Every structure is written in structure tokens, then in C-alpha cells.
Amino acid sequence: MDEVDVRQRARAFIAKVDTSDIRTDLTPYVVAANAKVKREELDEGESGYTITKPNGKHVITVNSLETEERQRFTICHEVAHIVLELESSHEEVPSWSYAKRHPNEIACDTFAAELLMPYQQWLSLVPKEEPSLELIQHMADLFGTSFPAAASRFACLSDMPCAFVTMERGAVRYAARSTSLRQTGAWISPKSIIPVGSVAHRLRSSGNSATDTGDVSQDIWFDNWEQGLDLWELSRHYARTDTTTSLLWFDSDDLPGVEVNRFGARVEDDGGLAELTGQLPWPGRSKRR
Please, what is the end-to-end C-alpha distance for the chain in angstroms? Predict the structure, then answer.
């Protein structure tokens, strides 16, 4: 089950639920999953779990000591386990970390993001302007979720070329890309080091928690990318957990014109002969340069 499958399953589930008040009340999701929620104090780092009773009823327990936004995410994450019928794999890895996390947990995070921020509501409420610290925080507050979750959602659903990169201990763990970037074959390699020259690298090198915005070259971030084009980078570093996030975006006019094959890989022009079509090019008016 890949990311596209998970998103489609989530949207099919949402379509059967009344989401008119879902930004303040997740009960419709819980009921649709044949579950109920209880809150109790759990150990530090334990966000929640689900137990299924013999009668098929699910009991989702969330950590009452965590923030409200974290509890909301945990509820949706556990609903995902129920709907997708994926076993939990809560090992000794923080929930915010992509390192060594089980694919089931990452899939349920993706499902949870769809539930917390339904794409139709998101598109109707997100301001039609370039991203900023204030805009992303506004959307996070509006949907009761974290800043990184809102930034990732913004990147995925943005009309402009946009990406959201999650980094951990100096290495890239995950990059969410807008449709235009995916279609262009823009790629940020997982496990690669934070690129020198990026805002993220500068903030992490300081050793302090900080947020900043700056313009950098596009080819600093994207593999095998055209040089001479810039992008904006809004980066935030969390010193305590050594995690860093960056929201990258630029104008569609600065998107390199490239060809992508059916596998999503960029097609390089090797200067070879054009494919035979059965039609003679001569005596056409155009000249090949």
C-alpha cells in the first residue's frame, strides 16, 4: 500500500462522514470506525494505543498529558490503524521520527493528516498567497494540528512548486512535494545530508532552536537540477530533538522545463536522433537549433 493508496482510502472514508464540525470534534471519525476514545495518563513518549474487544468495538486510549493537537493526531492515527487494518508497530522510536519507523506507522500518519485536514476544506480555507510563518501557523491553529503537519499539507496541495522537507540529526528523512514538482521530477534524496548553503543547514549549525526565511538556489535542494534559479526557504530547527523542517517554494515561471517519463524520472536530452514518426520533416519552415 503506497502513499497514493492511503490517501485515496482516507478520502473515501471521509466522504462517508459529516465533516462540517470536524476541525473541533473528531467524534464522527471515531463513530465511523466503531470505536470510542478514553484519555488517561500514559508514560512519556507513549501517545496512545487501541484495544479491540471481542464484540468488535475498538477502544482508543490517548495520553492526556500531551497537547490537544497531539491527542487529535493520535486519535486519527489510531482510526487509521482500524480502517486500514494495519497492525501497530510502536517500537522505541519517537512518533515524530521517520528514522527506522515501520511502514504501517508512516501510512497511518499519512491517513491521519488527511483526516485532520480534509483537502476540500483545506483548499476552501487556505489563503491564496505565498506561504509565510504566519500563514502556516494560521492553518495549523484553524485545523488544530502542528506547524509541521500544516506546512506539509500546504506543500502537498499547493498550486505553486512547493516542497516540505523533514530532517533529523542532519539528514533528510522525508520530502512532500506539490503536484507540479512531482510532475517535473523534482527529487530530494532521503538520507542525504542537509545541503550546505540552505537555511536549514545554517540554523542547525547554530545549535539553537530558531526559525528563519531566506532565498537559496534551487539546485542546492533538488537533485540534478538546473542552475541559476532561486527559491524561498522557510526553515525551523528544534535543537532538543535535533529535527529540522523546511518549506520550499518558488514561482511557477521559475520551474525548469523538463520532460518526465512514465516512471517519474527526468528525461535528459542526449542530442541523439529524434524518434521516427513516419513523417518527413522537410520542407518544413522551422530549423533545428
Answer: 46
Using one digit for the tens of pLDDT, what is the confidence trace for 148-207?
A: 999 999 999 999 999 999 999 999 998 999 999 999 999 999 999 999 999 999 999 999
Domains of the chain: 3-116 (1.10.10.2910), 132-261 (3.30.450)
The span from the CA of 47 to the CA of 63, in Å, is 5
How many CB atoms are closer than 10 A to CB 55?
6
pTM: 0.81
CB atoms closer than 10 angstroms to residue 18: 10
β-pair partners for 272? none
H or E stretch including 56?
none
**Furthest-apart CA pair in the chain: how many Å?**
80
* Cα angle 240, 246, 252; round to 5: 175
